[in-house]
Amino acid sequence: MLEFTEGNEDVRATLFVEVILPLAISKTYTYRVPNAWNDQVAIGKRVIVQFGKNKVYSAIIYRVTDQPPGLYEAKYILDVLDDTRIVEDTQLQLWEWIATYYLCRLGEVMQAALPAALKLASETKIIAVDTGLVDRSELNDKEYLILDALDISPELKVSDIVKLLGQKTVFPILKRLFDKGLIMISEEVSAKYKPRMKAFIRLHGEYADNTGKKLLLESLSKAPKQQDAVLAYLQLARLNPDAAKSDIMEASSCSAATITALVDKGVFVLEERAISRLDGEPIDVSGDFTFNDAQSKAFGEIKNKFEEKDVVLLHGITASGKTQLYIRLIEEAVAKGNNVLYLLPEIALTAQITERLRLHFGNQLGVYHSRFNDNERAEVWHKVLNHEYQVVIGARSAVFLPFQSLGLIIVDEEHETSYKQFDPAPRYHARDTAIYLGHIHGAKVLLGSATPAVESYYNARAGKYGLVELNQRYGDAQLPEITTVSIGEESRKGNMFSYFSGTLLQEIEKALAQQQQVILFQNRRGHTPLLQCKTCGYIAKCIHCDVSLTYHKSSGKLHCHYCGFSEEPVPVCPACGSTHIESKGFGTERVEEELESLLPNARIGRLDLDSTRGKHGFDRVLNAFDEHRYDILVGTQMVAKGLDFGKVSVIGIINADGLINYPDFRAYERAFSLLAQVSGRAGRRNSSGKVIIQSYAPSHRIIQQVMENDYVGMFMTEVTERKNYAYPPFFRLFKIDVKHKEQQTVHDAAHRLAVLLREGLGSRVIGPEVPLVSRVRNNYIYSIMLKVERMGTSMAKVKELIKSTLLNFEANKANKGVRLQIDVDPY
Ligand code: ADP
Ligand code: ZN
Ligand code: ZN
């Protein structure tokens, strides 16, 4: 028989692929496919391509076509990286929506969407995974060579490996090594996710009394490491007789072997325990729980509203048991074979919720957030792709995972501003993106909050979303009683002790006497935010930014919170030589320090960006507080994030004024949310709670509304203001930042841009203005704000106009080197 098709290469069509490169370029790029690979290319797979002079990237196939590009001659793709697609059509659809809605590039969306390990580029770093145990005889020459090189230098760039092997494409080899678990691919190596088992150490009963301890220490005098470990244990055991093995190792810098030796000797008793935050609490959420009447009613309503609406807003006060409603809804969706995405604003929260959800969903629950290392993120990606997870809990970027049959998306604490990505592009809002994601999948979206965003509540009232209210705390828990303290008045009466009023101190002491816990909120981190010379007025400022430097006691340095710059504090004014340097303002470190001297017996912990860095930062602090190893937790807005602790009976707001008097149209709304959310941490289970708000203006409307728990009142006043002053939800905002190293250049360019924009948009263009912080990382900034009315306007047309104006601007030689940054729906 004659074969007509086999081997008859020239009848095969010439194919081209349009790819998305992980770069901020406006267009997709087209490459030619060698005939032999025609069957292998498909949308959503990665190919390796050269772009620019000698940079190589992995790019995502966006389209397969037989049309060559019109304007340039297509280069060949260098390789096809995947056997099966790693990006789904629904994801590409979401990427397109983000690029259009947020006026950014597909490549930028791809950058944000793919975990580093899935987007190789010449600059990507390769790190060896502990290769000691691997049988290298299984490897081929090239793989061997790479691992060999990694023995010598633990970190290599892809471009180094290109040189090492003398070939252009090394990605397939790296992919093999990665799949075998021998290398890590990374932009940054970060900490591993916390295991759920934890080893605890107790001292053997024999050494319980002081003589026993003394004899034990003496007997270990020849083994100084073991002695150190025992000393570290004794120190830690003051807080809790069961000390974590890891804490002992950290405190004494001893090795696991030292601990093992002590266990073998019978000095230490070791116990492996699965740790749950709910341990020790009387409430058992595992398996069965039953709703109370209010919950049942809300649950029924949510399901009814979902019959008609795709999005429902659950407005439920703090500790009303919203999480339990979520769990039931998730169970039902899973039972129908659907996937569920559970979004949380902040990783600080995920541990607590993950523990609760694990009780219900076990291994079918995946977790995805930025403190995972890149390999772990790639692993989650693949598990979602392969349907191994039914429920994924994650922060913002989890909206990018390759879901295939989403049935339900929950956006918990939907009002949180951390759902919005500030930098870099795409500057997307995960709640709004989730709503679109739900739309693509035909999934239902539940937004939940005790203090919904004004926009969301407006949409719910307008009938765009379904609205369900839950106005009662679960169980016997009551909303806390809120009182205010006038700082001014108390100072005059001599009733302020450092930053604390007599009233607050008394309540703290009462709580501690009753074995209860206290949370204190101060919305600044560090020790002293401002150092000013009393003689000449000089202020210590960052050399790169127009920002005052904050003194941090923990580092002993002055830090810039914008760019990370730090320097040693100087005892004399650099400008006039005076030694009268005054501290102004105070942050969490200072609150902690003052409290330590006022209440020397209290055990105080701190929850802010500085105290939670590194591996299990959040978990460490939150666990310690949950296990009552701290009496008082001092923190920034991190303490307001929906945490559930059983024994908190007093909350103190050290100073509410900073929150309220902030020049932003959302300031009141945000102050209300923060104060209501922080207050909501008190009295969550049975016991009642007290909240004390200290302020110079305690009769301020917002504080009054917080006291009366009057969300709707706050909403009504805000909506009126927003309507009057042309803000969302009535107007859509676009913020354009113009940046350059030279102030004059940015001034001129910003004015030119404003003129151009006014040609099409007229009085909708506000500015340019110098923002509050006018220089960051040596770049001067001017901001232009566009306010576009939503009624009767085609946003698509407005966006087209903005886009073409910006292109126009960039094409003008006078604007060369000026950078534009656009933020749609800025926060
Ligand atoms: P919210 O998310 O609304 O702030 P939570 O879901 O955290 O409230 O509930 C507050 C507390 O009440 C939690 O400790 C939770 O375990 C408990 N709780 C809520 N509903 C139930 C229920 N139906 N059965 C048992 N415990 C519940
Ligand atoms: Zn001076
Ligand atoms: Zn700086």
Quickly describe the structure.
With 827 residues, the chain is of the alpha/beta class. The chain contains 25 helices and 36 strands.
Notes on the structure:
This protein is of the alpha/beta class. The chain has seven domains: 114 residues, 3-Layer(aba) Sandwich (GIY-YIG endonuclease); 61 residues; 78 residues; 178 residues, P-loop containing nucleotide triphosphate hydrolases (Rossmann fold, 3-Layer(aba) Sandwich); 166 residues, 3-Layer(aba) Sandwich (Rossmann fold); 58 residues, no CATH class; 94 residues, Ribosomal protein S10 (Alpha-Beta Plaits), CATH 3.30.70.600. It is built from 25 helices and 36 strands. The strands form nine sheets. Strands 14-15-13-16-17-12-18 form a seven-stranded parallel beta sheet, with helices on both faces. Strands 19-31-30-22-29-28 form a six-stranded parallel beta sheet, with helices on both faces. Strands 2-1-4-3-5 form a five-stranded antiparallel beta sheet. Helix 24 runs antiparallel to helix 25. It starts with 14 loop residues before the first strand and ends with a strand. Bound molecules: adenosine-5'-diphosphate (ADP) and zinc ion (2 copies). The site of one zinc ion has 8 residues, from loops.
Short key terms for the protein model shown above:
GIY-YIG endonuclease; binds adenosine-5'-diphosphate; binds zinc ion
Number of strands: 36
Largest sheet: 7 strands, parallel
Ligand inventory: adenosine-5'-diphosphate, zinc ion
Instruction: State the separation between the terminal residues, measured CA to CA.
Output: 71 Å
State the CATH topology of the largest domain: Rossmann fold
* Name of the CATH homologous superfamily of the largest domain: P-loop containing nucleotide triphosphate hydrolases
Low-confidence stretches: 1-9, 188-196, 276-286
Please name the CATH architecture of the largest domain.
Answer: 3-Layer(aba) Sandwich
Cα Rg: 29 Å
Tally the helices. 25
Instruction: Assess the beta-strand content as a share of residues.
Output: 15-25%
Percent helix: 25-40%
* SS-based class: alpha/beta
Strand order of the largest sheet: 14-15-13-16-17-12-18
Total domains: 7
Shape, per Cα inertia axes: globular
Mean pLDDT: 87
CATH class of the largest domain equals Alpha Beta
